[in-house]
Amino acid sequence: MAEIRVESVRKTFGKVQAVWDVDLTVHDQEFVVLLGPSGCGKTTLLRCIAGLEQVDQGRVSIGQRDVTDLPPRRRQIAMVFQSYAVFPHLTVFENVAFGLRMQRKPNDEIKKRVQSAAELLHIEELLERYPAQLSGGQRQRVAVARAIAVQAMVLLMDEPLSNLDALLRLEMRAELKRLLQEIEATTLYVTHDQVEALSLGDRIAVMHGGQILQYDTPLSVYDKPADLFIGGFIGNPPMNFLDGEIRTEDGQVLVQTGGGEIYPSPEVQTMLRQLKDQSVLVGIRAENIETLPAPADDTLQAEVLVVEPLGSHNLITMQLGPERIKVNTEADFKAQPNQTLWLRLNTDKISWIDKASGRALYYD
Questions:
Q1: Which regions of the chain does DSSP assign to beta strands (E)?
Q2: How far apart are CA 81 and CA 79, in angstroms?
Q3: Which of 76, 252, 326, 337 could form a disulfide with 237 if both were Cys (CB 3.0 to 4.6 A apart)?
């Protein structure tokens, strides 16, 4: 078993609370992503698990062992850094073999493991080269091969793809997912890139201000953000938010926005009925809004501001009452600036956010 458990961990640097009362469990062979903006504490948390930072409070366990006070070499982990950290004076073979030599493994076993790791990363033809003779993507593959060659219980990865160009990141992302499925390692992966998080992780822990705000599957984090920050951080474009007031009319609950009235589903009406006259935010993603050229039932009138053709679809910025929103349409949908269109919101996909606390109503 290589389960990672973090319990009530705190880490401060002077007066800065980098990590504050964090609890996290990564199951055996699970791939978990720590996602958040720069400065949110995700790398500090990873370094606390690795033993590169000593926690001020709390407990870190790997498998059945409490490793809180153990040095990194005794935690049975392997780490891949953002900067590759390959040794320029060593060949690719010796770079991959470095951890094994530190463990004093026999030469025959070293050769076998290096060859196996090189084949998994498709770098077997590069073993006699030096890092200066490699591209950025090849160096990153060397760093990953070195980490998996030691067959550690846990693999920790700190933004390993951030130094690569966009196309290479796309290729490496797919390769990395295939690789980790093959080696069945317990993996904790740090990134600020939401696409990496959504495409790679079994679960995502979204961090902000040194705390984990939501820990769930990628689909749940995307469709049902726990608060205003997550909805605005995840998604391209981010989730739209409309100011709304809960009202009751003829026994039916509705939400009055600057752009018109929204009628929630019966299940949501039951929840909102208890919050009469309370202010809420109506969160809706661009792909969950239907755009119509003519008025229809349950639609809101909006004016086109900007049309951005993106090949597979159009991204349209619209003025809806006092607010601007983003809407996705089919690539062949015709729209021009200053044109009036009508929008139908998929009420089953709305996130209802308490305006005062910023938390989703269904998480309170």
A1: 4-13, 16-26, 31-35, 57-62, 65-66, 77-80, 154-158, 186-191, 203-208, 211-216, 240-249, 252-257, 260-262, 279-284, 289-292, 300-309, 313-320, 323-330, 340-345, 351-354
A2: 6
A3: 326
Which secondary-structure segment (H or E) carries 148?
helix 136-149
What lies within 8 Å, CB to CB, of 313 at 6+ separation is 328, 329, 330, 331
Give φ, ψ of 162 to 5 degrees. -70, -20
Nearest to 220 by CA among 203, 208, 238, 243: 203
How many residues does the structure list for the chain? Answer: 364
Neighbours of 322 (CB within 10 A): 10
**3-class DSSP assignment, residue 217:** coil
Q: Is the pLDDT of residue 165 over 80?
A: no
DSSP state of 45: H
Dihedrals phi, psi of 340, to nearest 5 degrees: -95, 130
287: left (phi over 0), alpha (psi -120 to 50) or beta: alpha
Q: Locate tokens 């390993």: which residue?
A: 160
Cα 10 to the center of its chain, rounded Å: 22
Q: How distant, in Å, are the alpha carbons of 11, 18, 103, 346 from that of 81?
A: 20, 19, 20, 42
pLDDT tens digits for range 54-67 = 999 999 999 989 99
User: In the Cβ-directed half-sphere of 198, how many Cα atoms lie within 13 Å?
Assistant: 12
Q: In 184-239, which residue ranges form alpha helices assigned H by DSSP? A: 194-200, 218-223, 228-233
Q: Which domains does the chain have, with CATH numbers?
A: 4-233 (3.40.50.300), 240-363 (2.40.50.140)
* Distance of alpha carbon 102 from alpha carbon 201, whole angstroms: 31
Rounded Cα distance between 210 and 34, Å, is 11
Tokens of 328: 């996705």
